[in-house]
User: What shape does this take?
Amino acid sequence: QLQLVESGGGLVQPGGSLRLSCVASGFTLDYYAIGWFRQAPGKEREGVSCLSRRGGSTNYADSVKGRFTISSDNAKNTVYLQMNSLQPEDTAIYYCAARLTSCHHDVMRYNYWGQGTQVTVSS
Assistant: This one.
């Protein structure tokens, strides 16, 4: 059974940092790309960052470039999203998702999803 579990969300003040984790079970990251997406109330789910299989390439939404960093620990079958300089507009539920091999901007192209973790940026 393929499963993704996110953790690490919470309440943080503007300018603060959080590190999200996405633990994969039932499959190995060697063959899958992992994307981070977010969805704010009343808005569509949007791509934040993605790591292709075996960390071959990374990409970021323009809104998070220079602030967020995606990385992986294959020994732990875990992908991280380090989020720095958080702003209120980063408030959303953050999801990780998996698809074979390469990243894709379309959320519909991801086969497996976690349950999400809430990130709230507020003073």
User: Anything to note?
Assistant: The chain has a mean pLDDT of 95. The two ends are 40 Å apart (CA to CA). The longest strand covers residues 92-100.
